[in-house]
Design goal:
The complex is a heterodimer of chains A (about 280) and B (about 70).
Chain A: H1 2-7, E1 32-39, E2 42-47, H2 48-69, H3 77-98, H4 107-122, H5 138-159, H6 161-168, H7 178-228, H8 234-238, H9 240-277
Antiparallel strand pairs in A: 1-2
Helix pairs in contact in A: 2-4, 3-4, 3-9, 4-9, 5-6, 5-7, 5-9, 7-9
Chain B: H1 5-13, H2 15-34, H3 39-70
Helix pairs in contact in B: 1-3, 2-3
The chains are: A mainly alpha (about 280), B mainly alpha (about 70).
Chain lengths: ~280, ~70
Protein backbone atom coordinates (compact mmCIF):
# COMPACT_ATOMS: atom_id res chain seq x y z
CA UNK A 1 0.00 0.00 0.00
CA UNK A 2 2.68 2.46 0.99
CA UNK A 3 4.59 1.55 -2.14
CA UNK A 4 1.67 2.48 -4.39
CA UNK A 5 1.18 5.80 -2.63
CA UNK A 6 4.85 6.61 -3.05
CA UNK A 7 4.75 5.49 -6.67
CA UNK A 8 1.91 7.88 -7.37
CA UNK A 9 4.21 10.68 -6.23
CA UNK A 10 2.35 11.20 -2.98
CA UNK A 11 4.85 10.36 -0.28
CA UNK A 12 2.85 12.04 2.47
CA UNK A 13 1.32 9.70 5.01
CA UNK A 14 -2.46 9.69 5.26
CA UNK A 15 -2.46 9.07 8.99
CA UNK A 16 0.35 9.01 11.50
CA UNK A 17 1.34 5.49 12.41
CA UNK A 18 -0.39 3.58 9.68
CA UNK A 19 1.29 4.11 6.28
CA UNK A 20 3.67 6.59 7.81
CA UNK A 21 6.90 7.26 5.93
CA UNK A 22 8.54 8.64 9.02
CA UNK A 23 11.25 7.86 9.80
CA UNK A 24 12.16 7.02 6.20
CA UNK A 25 13.84 3.71 5.47
CA UNK A 26 15.69 2.43 2.38
CA UNK A 27 12.49 0.60 1.45
CA UNK A 28 10.92 3.97 0.63
CA UNK A 29 13.27 4.17 -2.34
CA UNK A 30 11.80 1.01 -3.85
CA UNK A 31 8.93 2.41 -5.90
CA UNK A 32 7.58 -0.01 -8.49
CA UNK A 33 5.19 1.45 -11.06
CA UNK A 34 3.95 -1.71 -12.79
CA UNK A 35 4.97 -5.31 -13.26
CA UNK A 36 6.90 -6.00 -16.45
CA UNK A 37 7.35 -9.77 -16.52
CA UNK A 38 7.92 -12.77 -14.34
CA UNK A 39 10.75 -15.28 -14.56
CA UNK A 40 10.67 -18.37 -12.37
CA UNK A 41 8.25 -16.92 -9.85
CA UNK A 42 10.36 -13.78 -9.48
CA UNK A 43 8.46 -10.70 -10.57
CA UNK A 44 10.32 -7.88 -12.29
CA UNK A 45 8.93 -4.39 -11.94
CA UNK A 46 9.28 -1.20 -13.90
CA UNK A 47 10.27 1.26 -11.20
CA UNK A 48 10.22 5.01 -10.81
CA UNK A 49 14.02 5.44 -11.19
CA UNK A 50 13.83 3.48 -14.45
CA UNK A 51 11.19 5.87 -15.73
CA UNK A 52 13.39 8.80 -14.68
CA UNK A 53 16.34 7.26 -16.51
CA UNK A 54 14.31 7.09 -19.71
CA UNK A 55 13.01 10.64 -19.26
CA UNK A 56 16.56 11.86 -18.72
CA UNK A 57 17.82 10.14 -21.87
CA UNK A 58 15.00 11.56 -23.99
CA UNK A 59 15.24 15.04 -22.48
CA UNK A 60 18.99 15.19 -23.03
CA UNK A 61 18.71 13.98 -26.62
CA UNK A 62 16.04 16.54 -27.41
CA UNK A 63 17.97 19.32 -25.67
CA UNK A 64 21.21 18.59 -27.49
CA UNK A 65 19.55 18.11 -30.89
CA UNK A 66 17.47 21.28 -30.65
CA UNK A 67 20.26 23.54 -29.43
CA UNK A 68 22.92 22.33 -31.84
CA UNK A 69 20.96 21.76 -35.03
CA UNK A 70 21.14 25.37 -36.11
CA UNK A 71 24.52 26.10 -34.62
CA UNK A 72 25.70 29.58 -35.45
CA UNK A 73 28.89 31.53 -34.85
CA UNK A 74 26.93 34.01 -32.79
CA UNK A 75 25.09 31.57 -30.54
CA UNK A 76 21.49 31.79 -29.43
CA UNK A 77 20.70 31.53 -25.73
CA UNK A 78 20.10 27.77 -25.89
CA UNK A 79 23.25 27.14 -27.86
CA UNK A 80 25.21 29.31 -25.45
CA UNK A 81 24.14 27.14 -22.51
CA UNK A 82 25.00 23.95 -24.36
CA UNK A 83 28.38 25.36 -25.27
CA UNK A 84 29.05 26.34 -21.68
CA UNK A 85 28.26 22.84 -20.39
CA UNK A 86 30.26 21.21 -23.18
CA UNK A 87 33.15 23.59 -22.59
CA UNK A 88 33.13 22.68 -18.90
CA UNK A 89 33.25 18.95 -19.60
CA UNK A 90 35.84 19.32 -22.35
CA UNK A 91 38.29 21.78 -20.85
CA UNK A 92 37.81 21.71 -17.10
CA UNK A 93 37.38 17.96 -16.79
CA UNK A 94 38.78 16.07 -19.79
CA UNK A 95 41.72 18.29 -20.78
CA UNK A 96 42.83 18.97 -17.21
CA UNK A 97 42.77 15.35 -16.13
CA UNK A 98 43.80 13.45 -19.29
CA UNK A 99 46.23 15.92 -20.83
CA UNK A 100 46.04 17.82 -24.09
CA UNK A 101 47.58 14.98 -26.17
CA UNK A 102 44.77 12.45 -26.30
CA UNK A 103 41.83 13.83 -24.38
CA UNK A 104 39.69 14.52 -27.45
CA UNK A 105 38.60 10.93 -28.01
CA UNK A 106 37.24 10.69 -24.47
CA UNK A 107 35.31 13.96 -24.52
CA UNK A 108 32.06 12.47 -25.94
CA UNK A 109 32.10 9.76 -23.29
CA UNK A 110 32.82 12.11 -20.42
CA UNK A 111 30.39 14.77 -21.64
CA UNK A 112 27.59 12.21 -21.97
CA UNK A 113 28.39 10.81 -18.54
CA UNK A 114 28.42 14.29 -17.01
CA UNK A 115 25.12 15.59 -18.37
CA UNK A 116 23.41 12.25 -17.78
CA UNK A 117 24.44 12.01 -14.13
CA UNK A 118 23.80 15.71 -13.57
CA UNK A 119 20.25 15.57 -14.87
CA UNK A 120 19.49 12.35 -13.02
CA UNK A 121 20.79 13.88 -9.81
CA UNK A 122 18.87 17.11 -10.31
CA UNK A 123 15.69 15.05 -10.65
CA UNK A 124 16.01 14.75 -6.88
CA UNK A 125 14.88 18.34 -6.40
CA UNK A 126 12.92 19.05 -9.59
CA UNK A 127 9.18 18.63 -9.13
CA UNK A 128 7.35 16.46 -10.08
CA UNK A 129 10.17 13.89 -10.38
CA UNK A 130 11.73 14.42 -6.93
CA UNK A 131 13.60 11.19 -6.77
CA UNK A 132 17.29 10.99 -7.60
CA UNK A 133 17.81 7.99 -9.86
CA UNK A 134 21.19 7.24 -8.35
CA UNK A 135 19.66 6.63 -4.92
CA UNK A 136 19.17 3.02 -6.04
CA UNK A 137 22.61 1.47 -5.94
CA UNK A 138 22.23 -0.53 -9.18
CA UNK A 139 22.31 2.61 -11.35
CA UNK A 140 25.67 3.98 -10.16
CA UNK A 141 27.07 0.45 -10.36
CA UNK A 142 26.03 0.22 -14.02
CA UNK A 143 27.66 3.57 -14.80
CA UNK A 144 30.78 2.56 -12.91
CA UNK A 145 30.99 -0.67 -14.91
CA UNK A 146 31.19 1.37 -18.10
CA UNK A 147 34.01 3.51 -16.68
CA UNK A 148 35.74 0.39 -15.28
CA UNK A 149 35.78 -1.35 -18.65
CA UNK A 150 36.95 1.79 -20.44
CA UNK A 151 39.94 2.60 -18.25
CA UNK A 152 41.12 -0.98 -18.01
CA UNK A 153 40.67 -1.52 -21.74
CA UNK A 154 42.73 1.50 -22.73
CA UNK A 155 45.33 0.58 -20.13
CA UNK A 156 45.69 -2.94 -21.55
CA UNK A 157 45.76 -1.57 -25.07
CA UNK A 158 48.49 0.94 -24.31
CA UNK A 159 50.77 -1.16 -22.11
CA UNK A 160 49.97 -4.75 -23.11
CA UNK A 161 48.72 -7.46 -20.73
CA UNK A 162 51.98 -7.88 -18.78
CA UNK A 163 53.03 -4.29 -19.24
CA UNK A 164 49.84 -3.09 -17.59
CA UNK A 165 50.74 -4.84 -14.34
CA UNK A 166 54.31 -3.60 -14.62
CA UNK A 167 52.94 -0.11 -15.16
CA UNK A 168 51.01 -0.27 -11.88
CA UNK A 169 54.31 -0.60 -9.98
CA UNK A 170 56.12 2.63 -9.20
CA UNK A 171 59.70 2.49 -10.37
CA UNK A 172 62.73 2.43 -8.12
CA UNK A 173 61.41 0.01 -5.52
CA UNK A 174 63.67 -2.58 -3.86
CA UNK A 175 62.92 -6.08 -5.15
CA UNK A 176 61.56 -7.65 -1.98
CA UNK A 177 58.78 -5.09 -1.55
CA UNK A 178 57.50 -5.34 -5.12
CA UNK A 179 54.96 -8.19 -4.58
CA UNK A 180 53.29 -6.35 -1.71
CA UNK A 181 53.09 -3.07 -3.57
CA UNK A 182 51.77 -4.88 -6.63
CA UNK A 183 49.08 -6.49 -4.50
CA UNK A 184 48.11 -3.12 -3.00
CA UNK A 185 48.07 -1.46 -6.40
CA UNK A 186 45.94 -4.24 -7.84
CA UNK A 187 43.45 -3.86 -4.99
CA UNK A 188 43.35 -0.14 -5.73
CA UNK A 189 42.89 -0.63 -9.48
CA UNK A 190 40.39 -3.47 -9.45
CA UNK A 191 38.44 -3.10 -6.20
CA UNK A 192 38.79 0.22 -4.38
CA UNK A 193 38.41 2.53 -7.36
CA UNK A 194 35.16 1.14 -8.78
CA UNK A 195 33.77 0.55 -5.29
CA UNK A 196 34.34 4.12 -4.15
CA UNK A 197 33.19 5.54 -7.48
CA UNK A 198 29.82 3.77 -7.30
CA UNK A 199 29.28 4.08 -3.56
CA UNK A 200 30.13 7.77 -3.44
CA UNK A 201 27.48 8.70 -5.97
CA UNK A 202 24.96 6.33 -4.43
CA UNK A 203 25.65 7.35 -0.84
CA UNK A 204 25.44 11.06 -1.51
CA UNK A 205 22.21 10.89 -3.46
CA UNK A 206 20.65 8.43 -1.04
CA UNK A 207 21.64 10.20 2.17
CA UNK A 208 20.84 13.63 0.78
CA UNK A 209 17.39 12.62 -0.31
CA UNK A 210 16.79 10.88 2.99
CA UNK A 211 17.64 14.14 4.75
CA UNK A 212 15.07 16.03 2.67
CA UNK A 213 12.46 13.37 3.43
CA UNK A 214 13.23 13.58 7.16
CA UNK A 215 12.66 17.34 7.29
CA UNK A 216 9.70 17.62 4.94
CA UNK A 217 7.77 14.49 5.87
CA UNK A 218 8.82 14.90 9.50
CA UNK A 219 7.39 18.42 9.41
CA UNK A 220 4.18 17.04 8.00
CA UNK A 221 3.96 14.41 10.75
CA UNK A 222 4.43 17.13 13.40
CA UNK A 223 1.87 19.40 11.73
CA UNK A 224 -0.60 16.56 11.54
CA UNK A 225 -0.19 15.44 15.12
CA UNK A 226 -0.50 19.05 16.28
CA UNK A 227 -3.56 20.22 14.36
CA UNK A 228 -5.32 17.36 12.61
CA UNK A 229 -5.66 14.99 15.54
CA UNK A 230 -7.87 15.45 18.54
CA UNK A 231 -5.99 16.37 21.67
CA UNK A 232 -2.87 17.27 19.70
CA UNK A 233 -0.36 19.73 21.06
CA UNK A 234 -0.42 22.89 18.87
CA UNK A 235 3.17 23.73 19.84
CA UNK A 236 4.35 20.63 18.00
CA UNK A 237 2.24 21.64 15.03
CA UNK A 238 3.83 25.11 14.92
CA UNK A 239 7.29 23.54 15.11
CA UNK A 240 6.60 22.07 11.67
CA UNK A 241 7.34 25.49 10.14
CA UNK A 242 11.05 25.59 11.06
CA UNK A 243 11.32 21.99 9.88
CA UNK A 244 9.92 22.97 6.48
CA UNK A 245 12.18 26.02 6.30
CA UNK A 246 15.11 23.73 7.00
CA UNK A 247 13.81 21.45 4.25
CA UNK A 248 13.78 24.36 1.79
CA UNK A 249 17.31 25.34 2.81
CA UNK A 250 18.55 21.79 2.44
CA UNK A 251 16.92 21.55 -0.98
CA UNK A 252 19.17 24.37 -2.17
CA UNK A 253 22.15 22.71 -0.50
CA UNK A 254 21.20 19.42 -2.12
CA UNK A 255 21.28 21.10 -5.55
CA UNK A 256 24.89 22.05 -4.91
CA UNK A 257 25.76 18.51 -3.78
CA UNK A 258 24.07 17.02 -6.82
CA UNK A 259 26.13 19.14 -9.18
CA UNK A 260 29.28 18.45 -7.20
CA UNK A 261 28.75 14.69 -7.26
CA UNK A 262 28.20 14.62 -11.02
CA UNK A 263 31.40 16.66 -11.36
CA UNK A 264 33.35 14.43 -8.98
CA UNK A 265 32.21 11.23 -10.69
CA UNK A 266 33.30 12.44 -14.11
CA UNK A 267 36.48 14.03 -12.74
CA UNK A 268 37.52 10.73 -11.15
CA UNK A 269 36.58 8.77 -14.27
CA UNK A 270 38.76 11.15 -16.31
CA UNK A 271 41.62 10.89 -13.84
CA UNK A 272 41.50 7.07 -13.99
CA UNK A 273 41.54 7.23 -17.79
CA UNK A 274 44.38 9.74 -17.66
CA UNK A 275 46.25 7.55 -15.19
CA UNK A 276 45.98 4.54 -17.49
CA UNK A 277 47.34 6.57 -20.40
CA UNK A 278 50.52 8.03 -18.87
CA UNK A 279 53.78 6.80 -20.29
CA UNK A 280 56.02 4.26 -18.60
CA UNK A 281 57.76 5.53 -15.54
CA UNK B 1 13.85 4.98 24.61
CA UNK B 2 14.91 2.59 21.87
CA UNK B 3 17.48 2.86 19.13
CA UNK B 4 20.51 1.28 17.61
CA UNK B 5 24.08 1.74 18.74
CA UNK B 6 25.29 1.59 15.12
CA UNK B 7 23.75 5.03 14.62
CA UNK B 8 26.11 6.51 17.22
CA UNK B 9 28.94 4.58 15.63
CA UNK B 10 28.27 6.16 12.28
CA UNK B 11 27.98 9.59 13.85
CA UNK B 12 31.41 9.14 15.42
CA UNK B 13 32.83 7.78 12.18
CA UNK B 14 31.92 10.94 10.29
CA UNK B 15 34.20 13.05 12.49
CA UNK B 16 37.36 11.88 10.75
CA UNK B 17 36.25 12.58 7.16
CA UNK B 18 34.70 15.86 8.32
CA UNK B 19 38.04 17.06 9.68
CA UNK B 20 39.76 15.82 6.54
CA UNK B 21 37.39 17.70 4.24
CA UNK B 22 37.81 20.82 6.35
CA UNK B 23 41.60 20.61 6.15
CA UNK B 24 41.53 20.06 2.39
CA UNK B 25 39.38 23.09 1.68
CA UNK B 26 41.32 25.19 4.20
CA UNK B 27 44.47 24.38 2.28
CA UNK B 28 42.73 25.15 -1.01
CA UNK B 29 41.48 28.53 0.21
CA UNK B 30 44.94 29.28 1.58
CA UNK B 31 46.51 28.48 -1.76
CA UNK B 32 44.06 30.61 -3.72
CA UNK B 33 44.41 33.48 -1.28
CA UNK B 34 48.16 33.46 -1.72
CA UNK B 35 48.06 33.00 -5.47
CA UNK B 36 44.68 33.76 -7.00
CA UNK B 37 45.83 32.72 -10.49
CA UNK B 38 46.48 29.18 -9.20
CA UNK B 39 42.78 28.70 -8.44
CA UNK B 40 41.97 26.79 -11.62
CA UNK B 41 44.98 24.54 -11.14
CA UNK B 42 44.19 23.78 -7.51
CA UNK B 43 40.45 23.22 -7.84
CA UNK B 44 40.49 19.73 -9.40
CA UNK B 45 43.16 18.66 -6.92
CA UNK B 46 41.09 19.92 -4.00
CA UNK B 47 37.93 18.26 -5.33
CA UNK B 48 39.80 15.00 -5.84
CA UNK B 49 41.12 15.04 -2.29
CA UNK B 50 37.69 15.96 -1.01
CA UNK B 51 36.13 13.05 -2.90
CA UNK B 52 38.66 10.59 -1.55
CA UNK B 53 38.21 11.74 2.05
CA UNK B 54 34.45 11.76 1.69
CA UNK B 55 34.44 8.18 0.40
CA UNK B 56 35.32 7.03 3.92
CA UNK B 57 32.21 8.66 5.33
CA UNK B 58 30.16 7.03 2.56
CA UNK B 59 31.65 3.65 3.44
CA UNK B 60 30.53 4.30 7.00
CA UNK B 61 27.01 5.06 5.80
CA UNK B 62 26.81 1.85 3.78
CA UNK B 63 28.24 -0.23 6.63
CA UNK B 64 25.79 1.43 9.00
CA UNK B 65 22.88 0.33 6.85
CA UNK B 66 24.33 -3.16 6.58
CA UNK B 67 24.62 -3.41 10.35
CA UNK B 68 21.27 -1.73 10.92
CA UNK B 69 19.19 -3.89 8.64
CA UNK B 70 20.93 -7.25 8.85
CA UNK B 71 21.36 -7.51 12.57
Amino acid sequence: MSATIAAAGLPLPTAAGENSHFPPTPEDFWQPLFKMFEIGGQAYYFTRPMALLLIAAIALSVWLLVTTRKAAIVPSKGQWLTEKVYDFARNDIARDMIGSRDFMRFVPFLFALFVFILLNNLFGIIPPFQNPTMARVAFPIALTLVVYVVYHWIGFKKHGAVGYFKFMLPSGLPGWIKPFILLLEMITFFITRPLTLALRLFGNMFAGHMLLVVFIVGGWVMFESGFLHEGGNPVIGVLAIPAWLMGALLTAFEGLIQFLQAYVFVLLAASYIGGALVDEH
Amino acid sequence: MTGDITLIGYGLATIGPAIAVGLIFAAYINGVARQPEAGNLLRPIAILGFALAEALAIFGLVLFFLAFFTG
